[in-house]
């Protein structure tokens, strides 16, 4: 009996000595938790170890017991935006954070234009860096990693926004978050998980991709490149899965240039990825993305086909697309005006997510057409207050008859519609707008936001 008691006491001593209550990297000092919500906290501990979680904003502690796999998970309600608060995790050991904010949490992901920082070079970098002193904006940069299977954790840490930390965070993400913070007067947490040159396939769970054989086939066409992975799921497993189920207000996405290899499948691929993320998170969060800018791709229509696929992807509920055809650079795949990209993304969030109806958020989006003799009348969403042509007559419209031969067309604004015609086309049947890789058209709505490229036909096009 004495030997048994000694062994038992020894076991408890080992548990105390090697206490292992620990947390994923995304849960740490300086973090932001989603406000007015129920957030999930999780981690690891000894099997059957009881962990007491004490939020500084809630008097009653929350208790949870680690399971036989040494994991635990618990949900905790959060109040309205505020802080800083303390947050304590106590088992055999104690972890305490003193600088936890409650606010709005957004995930920023994609390829190089999302990853692009002020340090890499943006318009107005010096002034933006100098004034980037926002204690209630927090950054979390996910370190680049790949994996063939879902990972439990990743590398990264929350930091406070200062002139020292801002230059190394996504510039688009920062300008978006700054606009939300100023407008909502709430803390904002931004998680950047992006990788330059990566196709969308690497950011989706391969099991979700496999549900569409055509997407699997398209993924086989992706070329191997020296700057990043191309195999489906490699970034998802290492850089997205470990963030789940950290509660989000929404997600931002700036990607597509790497998918101009097979642009015609992007209209299915992007919605598949959105559905996958929402399913994995168990959250129908808003998803706002940036249409790729004009650029001289080596295949004649690869860029505009990708842009049109992005336009079509807006059929997915609770999505929004920012058009940047007026602020790109056809000679540089990395346009340096990141401020307006961030502000336009913020417009979608402020209007559609936060209910600020007075905030403009979208340029004209093609809705329908009507043949009127030798003319075609085009109808648009987001044109209720009217349309305008910047710099003179409308440009970049083409019309085709049944021969499918598109020719340049004259276009005129008529209220909130556009009427197009071409002298050589007696019976027009289709219109294309801004239909080239480098098109920088001049159709805007009266809010000053540009129209997206579009086509009214569904004729097969060879992007090669």
TrEMBL record:
Q: GO biological process annotations for this chain's record? A: carbohydrate metabolic process
Pfam families, per the entry: SASA
- Which keywords annotate this record? Hydrolase, Signal
Sialate O-acetylesterase domain spans which residues?
Answer: 104-335
Task: Fetch the SUPFAM superfamilies from UniProt.
Answer: SGNH hydrolase (SSF52266)
Superkingdom = Bacteria
- The coiled-coil regions, if any, are none
Q: What is this protein called?
A: Sialate O-acetylesterase
Q: Which organism is it from?
A: Catalinimonas alkaloidigena
User: Taxonomically, what lineage is the organism?
Assistant: Bacteria, Pseudomonadati, Bacteroidota, Cytophagia, Cytophagales
């Amino acid at each position: 009996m004495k030997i048994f008691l000694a062994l038992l006491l020894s076991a408890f001593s080992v548990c105390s000595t090697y206490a292992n209550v620990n947390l994923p990297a995304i849960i740490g000092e300086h973090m932001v938790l989603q406000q007015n919500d129920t957030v999930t906290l999780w981690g690891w501990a000894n099997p059957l170890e009881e962990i007491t979680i004490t939020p500084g904003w809630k008097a009653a502690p929350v208790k949870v017991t680690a399971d036989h796999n040494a994991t635990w998970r618990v949900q905790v309600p959060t109040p309205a935006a505020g802080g800083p608060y303390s947050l304590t995790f106590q088992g055999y050991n104690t972890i305490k954070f003193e600088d936890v904010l409650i606010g709005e949490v957004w995930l920023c992901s994609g390829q190089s234009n999302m990853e692009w920082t002020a340090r890499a070079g943006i318009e107005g970098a010096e002034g933006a860096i100098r004034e980037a002193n926002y204690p209630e904006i927090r950054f979390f940069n996910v370190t680049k990693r790949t994996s063939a299977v879902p990972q439990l954790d990743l590398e990264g840490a929350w930091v406070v926004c200062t002139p020292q930390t801002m230059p190394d965070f996504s510039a688009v993400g920062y300008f978006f978050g700054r606009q939300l913070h100023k407008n909502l007067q709430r803390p904002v947490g931004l998680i950047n998980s992006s990788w330059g040159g990566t196709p969308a396939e690497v950011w989706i769970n391969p099991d979700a991709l496999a549900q569409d054989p055509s997407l699997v086939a398209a993924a086989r066409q992706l070329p191997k490149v020296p700057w990043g992975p191309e195999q489906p799921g490699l970034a998802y497993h290492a850089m997205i899965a470990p963030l789940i189920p950290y509660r989000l207000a929404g997600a931002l996405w700036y990607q597509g240039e790497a998918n101009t290899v097979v642009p015609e499948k992007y209209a299915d691929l992007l919605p598949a990825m959105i559905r996958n993320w929402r399913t994995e998170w168990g959250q129908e969060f808003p998803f706002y993305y940036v249409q790729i800018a004009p650029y001289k791709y080596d295949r004649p229509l690869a860029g505009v086909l990708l842009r049109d696929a992005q336009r079509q992807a807006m059929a997915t509920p609770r999505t929004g697309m920012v058009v940047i055809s007026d602020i790109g650079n056809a000679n540089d795949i990395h346009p340096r005006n990141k401020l307006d990209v961030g502000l336009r993304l913020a417009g979608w969030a402020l209007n559609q997510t936060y209910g600020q109806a007075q905030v403009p958020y979208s340029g004209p989006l093609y809705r329908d057409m009507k043949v009127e003799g030798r003319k075609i009348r085009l109808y648009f969403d987001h044109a209720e207050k009217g349309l305008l042509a910047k710099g003179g007559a409308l440009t970049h419209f083409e019309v085709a008859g049944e021969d499918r031969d598109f020719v340049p067309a004259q276009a005129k604004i008529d209220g909130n519609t556009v009427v197009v015609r071409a002298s050589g086309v007696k019976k027009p049947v289709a219109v294309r707008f801004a239909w080239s890789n480098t098109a920088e058209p001049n159709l805007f709505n009266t809010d000053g936001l540009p129209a997206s490229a579009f086509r009214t036909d569904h004729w097969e096009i060879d992007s090669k």
